[in-house]
Amino acid sequence: MIDDRIPRESVNSDEQSGDGFTDSAGQTELVQPHGSAPHSRVHSGSETEKPWEQLETRYRQIVEDQTDPVCRFLPDGTLTFVNRAYRHFFGKAHENFIGRSFFYFMSEEHAVDARNRISLLKPAEPVFKSEHEIKMAPAEFRWINWTFR
């Protein structure tokens, strides 16, 4: 998943903005663009925690518990998030991923193909699937089906 989060400054929970609203139960609903995630309910907790931070915390908890490997990376391939299943699959600790390249485990040929296809992502076509061979150990290779968003 390419890390394309909206800057926090662009989220406004003001009823007039259209980015969110507060219902009669005091819950805030933020609407994310690009078809990101379904609308999420965020309960007002502490006054110091903003609705955006609550939403992000809830999202990370859900993704962390996924059984499928999930990662986020910048357009240049720098990993910004990996979930527990991703770490388990590759058999490495969290700190071995963040800030490193998503393409590290791919052969140069597959990395070039993935980079080229990622560069073609656009709002009208925000998803593609592909299969790439990755290196697990010195003599062990696996084929992985990836979904890029």
TrEMBL record:
SMART domains (alphabetical): PAS
Record-linked InterPro entries: PAS (IPR000014), PAS-like_dom_sf (IPR035965), PAS_4 (IPR013656)
Organism: Desulfomonile tiedjei
Region listing for Disordered, in residue ranges: 1-52
Domain PAS: 55-104
Entry protein name: PAS domain S-box protein
